[in-house]
Amino acid sequence: MRLNNYISSTGICSRREADKLIQSKKVLINGDVAQIGQVVNPGDVVKVNGKRLHQKKNDVYIALNKPVGITCTTERHIKGNIIDYINYPERIFPVGRLDKPSEGLIILTNDGDIVNKILRSENNHEKEYVVTVNKNITPEFINNMSNGVRIFNPVNKKHVVTKKCPVTKVNNRTFKIVLTQGYNRQIRRMCETFNYEVQKLKRVRIMDLTLNGIAPGKWRRLTPQEVKGLID
User: Is residue 99 annotated as a catalytic residue, yes or no?
Assistant: First the structure.
């Protein structure tokens, strides 16, 4: 197995992040500094930052209907973190995030390679949300939200224009929006641009995976067919 695949298979990171670790000379195979493209053979000892890696026995894929108030972090010292909330016996992590005041569908896994497949905007994987705001929705608001909105991106501290996206009115104060991006608090920032405040935000779909059959605050394992739909 190629080294980046091996590292990813342990669940600590994606293949791309594994390549960065290798390039930074933080990976050893049998005590020697590893090289990009190197192959791991049975019996080899692989260490990252001095810690030996072990392949997982099984990949875990979970769909959670996250309630409001739970924080999507693996940092266990943070009260109300998603890992303690689920209390799964193996190490897992959330794919992407929903901010603390938001609710709905989020995937957790120990498969580090699935992260980029779902989250990279160039893959155009859809994520659908139902959003309630603080005042009546106008046709102008729907049009503006659909056609790209200039928002501030706190990650690089620059303004960006969001991709055009489908936005449909549900009722006077509720709309649906389908995104293929995932900027921090993107929908909330988009609404704020037009002087609307989000009162409720719920993610109802990731690609073909929905909340059907998952009660609020509950989770279930994905079926093999659902997993295949996410990683193919």
Answer: yes
Q: In this structure, which topology does domain 61-115+209-231 adopt according to CATH?
A: Alpha-Beta Plaits (3.30.70)
Q: What is the pLDDT of residues 121-164, one digit of tens each?
A: 667 889 999 999 999 999 999 999 999 999 998 878 889 999 99
Catalytic residue of the set 19, 32, 59, 99: 99
Of 59 and 164, which is predicted with more confidence?
164
Name the CA radius of gyration of the chain, rounded. Answer: 20
CATH number of the structural domain 126-206: 3.30.70.1560
CA distance 79 to 48: 29
- Residue 58: count other Cβ atoms within 10 Å of its Cβ: 6
Centre a 10 Å sphere on the Cβ of residue 35 and count the other Cβ atoms it contains.
12
Alpha-helical runs (H) found in the chain: 3-9, 15-23, 82-86, 114-119, 139-146, 186-193, 224-231
- Beta carbons of 227 and 109 less than 8 angstroms apart: no
Domain map of the chain by residue range? 3-52, 61-115+209-231, 126-206
* Predicted model pTM: 0.77
What's the length of the chain?
A: 232
DSSP symbol at 227: H
The encoded tokens of residue 190 equal 């988009």
What gap in Å lies between CA 162 and CA 136, rounded to an integer?
23
Classify domain 3-52 at the CATH class level: alpha beta
The CA distance from 146 to 161, in Å, is 12
